[in-house]
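Worked example

This section walks through a single chain of length 506. The input is the sequence exactly as stored; nothing has been trimmed or padded.
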Amino acid sequence: MKHLYLLIFLCLPLSSSFALELKRGPYLQSGSDVQVTFAWRTDVNSNGLVKYGTDPNDLNQQKLSNSNVKDHFVTVTGLNPNTKYYYSIGSSTEVLASGPDYFVWTAPAKGVAKKTRMWVLGDSGTATADARDVRDAYYAFTGNTHTDLWMMLGDNAYPNGTDTQFQNAVFDTYPEMLRKSVLWPAIGNHSLLDAGETAYLDIFDLPTNAEAGGLASGTENYYSFDYGNIHLVVLDSLVSSRSATGAMAMWFEEDLAATDQDWIIVYWHHPPYTKGSHDSDSGNMKQMREVFNPILENAGVDLVLGGHSHGYERSFLLQGHYGLSNTFNSNTMIVQPGNGREGEDGAYTKPSLGVNPQQGVVYTVAGSSGKVNVNEPYDHPAMFISLPSLGSVVIDIDGGRLDMQFINENAQVLDSFSMIKGSGQASEVLNQNMPEGTDNENMDATSENNDSLTHTDTSVGNGLGCNAGALKNTSLPYILLIWSLASFIMRQRRIRLHHLGKSTTV
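Given that input, the structure is written out below as tokens.
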């Protein structure tokens, strides 16, 4: 009997050594209307198993990868568009993560309009309290509204983009968002700062062969994808050639020519216009403006996003400025002046739904999701507003209408604008395949540290800074009175911008 006890004792550590430990993820990659890649890391090599289904209590389908690895990438195909799938990840012998909070919404079919929310982070990779405050502010702002996709504009892991730095700045900072919404990153100079550092390309599984729509790029450095009636293009302003005859520029022009989507959004790290912590009159920023701005403006792009400069800057609706900042002509290069806000100067408009070549682009710098540089000029003449403020960008698209807001670390809206195409008719396809009895859930309006936040709107277009829920049960006459009073006050308080006589508040 003693020998039996000894045998059992000796076998215990041997058995436990085979138990897998989840070290990273899960996180969602390269999602489309019919497929998504589930990624995670384990402490030891194993195969990878994803179970999934539309009922969290009945994951009746599965995909097994027999690759014996630590970094798992399992692509599930044959999914239905615009459908909520619950999932679990693990191996053929054990489950590592599962539950009602583990789900993915597939994209709508290409060209199908759906009310869509996007979250944009720039230079968020500091792994500091500032980055966490920006994160928590967005969670409070979005509440139970699902984030359909989210984008990182580069510099996602400071200072050198190593695997450990990505763990701290991305996976330990955004675990809830990573497991529910597909992340679409761009390369930044701090993502690939060290020669030979490949963590960015090893970690992310990005489309090279048009797996999520668009035109095949043949590289993960730059790519495109579709989400419903939106076409998105991600460029590489660091590693790839920025020449007009280079592979990226040629692919970019062909990709844009091939799309007929209602909306086109393009983003990369080094912004074409900025006077924040960097100056776009030089370096990669100048090259991107000179080569890529003419291509995208001629192709009818609606919105361009960049990071790198650690503040927030947003332009008028622009067309045709490719030179240095001192060559900017507000009379000929601003397609539509004003702040782009309904009820004030009016939303920016384009004549019809779909591609509108040479009708203007809004350029946005959103490089303050992890840190902000305060003592900078912030005076680029192309910009309607420039703010030395921490924050992130929220984009909502519904049919022929786009709304963009800048949310600071206190969940306050500091800037907003709208763009309307044609009649601006809203979409009618909303959550068409949501399982009965489920909510369009995402995050609670609390931080991961259980600190409650309240969303407040203090943008120029909203007049008074008030709690978003405060007016919810207020009668219409009072709302109109408050709105009128707020508009009057803000028109008296605006700080003059240096061009066109426009004004704003900070």
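What to look for: Confidence is low (pLDDT under 50) at residues 1-17, 429-452, 460-506.
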